[in-house]
Amino acid sequence: MSSIPSHHTAYSILDLAAVVEGETPANSFHHSLELAKQAEQLGYNRYWFAEHHNMENVASSATAVLIGYIAGGTTSIRVGSGGIMLPNHAPLIVAEQFGTLASLYPGRIDLGLGRAPGSDQLTAMAIRGENMQAAYQFPQDVQRLQNFFSAENSTAKVRAIPGEGLDIPIWILGSSTDSARLAATMGLPYAFASHFAPAQFLTAINIYRKNFQPSAHLQQPYVLACVNVVAADTDNEAEYLATSLKQFFMGVVTGKRKLLQPPVESMESIWNIYEEEAVMQMLGYSFIGGPEKLKIDLQAFINQTQVDEIMATSHIYNHQARLHSYQLFAEALRVPSLV
């Protein structure tokens, strides 16, 4: 796939369009565009949005719309989904939407696919209706999507217009070993959600690499790892900023979600020992620190995992601090020892 560089560890961004305390989704979208423009200048490879629903602190529910907004405001960075939760949609609709995006922004659109609902079960029922078993059809739906994109589908009775005949890279997203086997069998690039599900990461990428079957889309296995990054000028400042990230994951663990909270001097009054343990387990692949610590930790991670690409997601309350964090992350991965 021409969209995948192989000569160095590429670096990219996952954006949930997090809504911070005191602001609105509109603010989040404008901040996303500013970040994407900076990312393009800093050599980031791709900028993805994740589909989530019914979460007051996450505004990336209309994922395809945001992809168009960011692609329209940039010129070269790849833009896509990390991912579209395919069981929430008919494959034909996804093919048409991403066919439209790829027609508007040729050579720049990625389609990452996941099978989770991107929300709670009640919300999933509201989205899927009678189709609540759609997740079990995920492998078949990926194949249906591939068929809609193929030029050979031009003689079929149901066609994706636009979409048919376009080269839109499909990725399999996952947080378990099931997704690794599927990505390997289909010969597709694999993006792992190690930013919130670190437990099976090493096992999953090992399964993927061992079982990978070359395809027309990809000749060698390609692993993208998503991780949390909070970088600042000093380790102490980064740890302080990271308390917003920890509060965000507290909402995931307890089910009591809030808008992204400002950083605090200490988390002791916010969580108990069990909540702390649960949050820190989820944050197993997090890179928090100043420039030197970031370089050392990232080098160790790359040495251990041999990933082809690292995608950073950064829940930082202050927008300028978030922009600076992504600048430091790019600089850490551009040093000679990491390329």
TrEMBL record:
Domain of life: Bacteria
Single GO cellular component term: cytosol
Pfam families: Bac_luciferase (PF00296)
Cited SUPFAM superfamilies: Bacterial luciferase-like
Domain Luciferase-like: 21-253
GO MF annotation terms: oxidoreductase activity, acting on paired donors, with incorporation or reduction of molecular oxygen
Classification via PANTHER family: LUCIFERASE-LIKE MONOOXYGENASE (PTHR30137:SF6)
Family: To bacterial alkanal monooxygenase alpha and beta chains.
Name used for this protein in its record: Luciferase-like monooxygenase
Organism field: Mucilaginibacter robiniae
Phylogenetic lineage: Bacteria, Pseudomonadati, Bacteroidota, Sphingobacteriia, Sphingobacteriales
